[in-house]
């Protein structure tokens, strides 16, 4: 399916596709590489490298007034993808005032500096290690009269950032750096002989035009960006925002882990969607004033919280918001769920829940095993004889399948015969568009609700980690419930300490916010997803709490 609806809103090709007919009428070189059917519709063979090259040259001239030479043995840049990357950087650093950027591995086309300088009058240091690419990049800059904004330099050195930045004297500080590193670690991976792509994923719709030096580097894209991260910890504020594009989704988890290892507190990722192709972006900074935008593709996953009206008389406590919250908090902390108090009001409270392991499933079975250990052979013989009921063991997971009050109060989706929650058609299409290189295998995320996740089997690399540190929030003593659009504020400090003196765990399988608020005569319980390995875990916690309140 097409991902164009998730293109950056400012991308000129999101709602206005190029007219091949108009281009063919205006540019003879392009017309020679097209075909036309009886109705007059013009077609282009995207598996023909010459046709791709002609299309890119025509679009650069037609839409940006750029004259660009593209060598036959070098990468042909696709414009929608490059524009998505540039617009993302615009969202981060802004477009007001003079900006300095660094393009690492600018290529023969020098495409990023040319586009960004033409659109925003940004200045660039463009580095390149290949002599032929340097020659063509300089020529393209000169042909478009942009030499006063773009400086093409030889970056042939073991360092990626450090040497080039230290030798450059036109500016002392850069607003950003950008990079489109070689995707592959060796020729076998580049030729698809070694791949993590799923067998049912369709082949690429266009031909690869990259030369070996443009698509292969020792360590692949992960090794390349990992070196960027290491150098950035030395350069720090020399570059305000460090960014890179990635060709494989599986690279994200490894690089986020490296950022945590290097104690980089603030980073973000995004998706670049165009046509049937998706790429990923990663950015990090040492500047606390930087804010990162959320991509439209990621925003589509946002779902309303799970809602439950707490029956009166629940929990054998007084039917008041803070009494019920205290009761639930004690229950959660008894099963080792970290609770951090967020914003409070007279009729409202929010608590951030963080769990490092699944301790809420099979509570009865755990108690019985403990009794068995303490009681010896007598109870064991009862178990073998079937005298102890197993009926309540799976109550949580069974109830999870039967939740009638689901996210946003809508009916839950039916399960298929294997117990796996059925996807909507849009979710199916999105999952087919996403890379199969996800660090968390689908099979582990889509387990049956009757077979809750065994977190002991989850590799620690797949745990989620705190992305940002947020300021402490003082408790609000007003009687008004907290506004729902202030979710970040109500979470309080990510370094907050609970009443037991424990800090929130940095590695976890589930993080969600629990809210209790009065609505008329009733008190509502909400659970809203923040992060973790699977939303199913939040549904299990919801059912666990619901059973405790019954």
UniProtKB/TrEMBL annotation:
Keywords: Cytoplasm, Methyltransferase, Nucleus, RNA-binding, S-adenosyl-L-methionine, Transferase
Organism of derivation: Elysia chlorotica
Compartment(s) where it occurs, according to its Swiss-Prot or TrEMBL record: Cytoplasm; Nucleus
Segments of skewed composition (Polar residues): 398-407
Gene3D superfamilies xrefs: Vaccinia Virus protein VP39
Keyword Nucleotidyltransferase belongs to the record: no
UniProt binding sites for S-adenosyl-L-methionine: 82, 105, 128, 180
Name of the protein described by the UniProt record: RNA N(6)-adenosine-methyltransferase METTL16
Ranges in coiled-coil conformation: none
InterPro entries registered for this protein in UniProt: METTL16/PsiM, METTL16/RlmF, SAM-dependent_MTases_sf
Organism ancestry: Eukaryota, Metazoa, Spiralia, Lophotrochozoa, Mollusca
Alphabetized GO MF terms: mRNA m(6)A methyltransferase activity; RNA binding; U6 snRNA (adenine-(43)-N(6))-methyltransferase activity
Major localization listed first in the record, in broad terms: cytoplasm
Similarity annotation: Belongs to the methyltransferase superfamily. METTL16/RlmF family.
């Amino acid at each position: 399916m097409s991902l164009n609806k998730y293109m950056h809103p400012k991308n000129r090709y999101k709602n206005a596709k190029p007219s091949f007919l108009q281009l063919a009428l205006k540019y003879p070189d392009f017309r020679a590489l097209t075909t036309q059917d009886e109705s007059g519709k013009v077609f282009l063979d995207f598996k023909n490298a010459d046709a791709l090259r002609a299309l890119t040259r025509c679009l650069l001239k037609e839409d940006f007034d750029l004259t660009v030479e593209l060598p036959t043995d070098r990468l042909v840049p696709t414009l929608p993808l490059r524009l998505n990357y540039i617009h993302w950087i615009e969202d981060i650093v802004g477009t007001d005032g003079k900006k300095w950027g660094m393009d690492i591995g600018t290529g023969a086309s020098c495409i990023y500096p040319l586009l960004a300088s033409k659109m925003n009058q940004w200045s660039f240091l463009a580095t390149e290690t290949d002599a032929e690419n340097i020659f063509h990049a300089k020529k393209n800059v000169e042909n478009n009269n942009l030499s006063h904004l773009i400086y093409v330099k030889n970056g042939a050195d073991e360092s990626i950032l450090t040497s080039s930045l230290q030798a450059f004297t036109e500016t002392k500080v850069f607003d950003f750096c950008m990079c489109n590193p070689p995707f592959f670690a060796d020729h076998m991976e580049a030729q698809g002989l070694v791949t993590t792509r799923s067998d049912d994923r369709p082949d690429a719709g266009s031909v690869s035009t990259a030369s070996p030096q443009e698509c292969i580097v020792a360590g692949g894209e992960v090794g390349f960006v990992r070196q960027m991260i290491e150098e950035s910890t030395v350069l720090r504020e020399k570059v305000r925002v460090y960014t890179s594009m990635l060709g494989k989704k599986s690279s994200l988890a490894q690089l986020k882990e490296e950022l945590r290892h290097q104690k980089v507190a603030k980073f973000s990722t995004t998706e670049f969607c165009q046509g049937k192709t998706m790429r990923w972006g990663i950015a990090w900074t040492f500047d606390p004033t930087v804010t990162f935008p959320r991509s439209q593709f990621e925003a589509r996953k946002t779902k309303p919280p799970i809602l439950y009206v707490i029956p009166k008389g629940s929990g054998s406590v007084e039917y008041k918001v803070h009494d019920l919250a205290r009761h639930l908090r004690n229950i959660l902390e008894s099963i080792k769920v970290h609770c951090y108090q967020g914003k409070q009001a007279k009729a409202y409270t929010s608590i951030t829940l963080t769990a490092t392991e699944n301790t809420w499933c099979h509570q009865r079975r755990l108690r019985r095993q403990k009794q068995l250990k303490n009681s010896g052979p007598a109870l064991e013989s009862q178990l073998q004889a079937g005298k102890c009921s197993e009926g309540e063991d799976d109550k949580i997971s069974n109830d999870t399948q039967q939740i009638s009050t689901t996210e946003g109060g809508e009916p839950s989706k039916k399960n298929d015969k294997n117990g796996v929650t059925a996807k909507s058609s849009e979710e199916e299409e999105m999952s087919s568009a996403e890379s199969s290189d996800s660090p968390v295998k689908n099979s582990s995320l889509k387990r049956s609700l009757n077979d809750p996740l065994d977190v002991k089997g989850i590799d620690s690399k797949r745990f989620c980690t705190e992305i940002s540190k947020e300021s402490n929030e003082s408790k609000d003593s007003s009687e008004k419930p907290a506004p729902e659009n202030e979710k970040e504020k109500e979470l309080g400090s990510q370094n907050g300490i609970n009443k037991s003196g424990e800090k929130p765990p940095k590695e976890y399988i589930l993080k969600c916010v629990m809210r209790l608020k009065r609505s008329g005569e009733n008190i509502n319980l909400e659970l809203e997803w923040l992060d973790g390995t699977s939303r199913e875990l939040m549904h299990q916690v919801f059912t666990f709490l619901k059973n405790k309140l019954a």
